Amino acid sequence: MSSKITRVSLTLPQGLLDELDRMLEAQRYASRSEAFRDAIRDFLANYRWRSELKGEQLGAILVLYEHDVRGLMDELMDIQHEHSSVISAVQHLHIDAKNCLEVLIVKGAAGKIRSLIDRIGATRGVKQAKLVVV
Ligand code: NI
Description:
Blueprint: H1 14-27, H2 32-51, E1 56-66, H3 72-82, E2 87-94, E3 99-109, H4 110-121, E4 126-133
Antiparallel strand pairs: 1-3, 1-4, 2-3
The structure holds nickel (II) ion.
């Protein structure tokens, strides 16, 4: 892996940045950059773990999202219908005025479950998508 350092810029909601800064101070992080590097490594490690799942799996996908993002609920519904062969059950909780939590119980081929969580995670407006297997 190259040790060359590249500078990138990104846009974030102010509330997210404020929360990050409070966390950095509490954890005595050296810098925002160090926190982003750790977060990206964690994101990649999680992706690698998911990529290596094989065979039949049983688990759950937790999805946190804002239901009023335009087109998001239609998109999530389309994705779920396309993957209905691995979704055994869906539980939806309206957390507050904006946020929803959906828990999908998944059972079936690892590749299909991976496709499901990859699609959900990449959808704009989804704040978190986590896969747990048992
Ligand atoms: Ni809801």
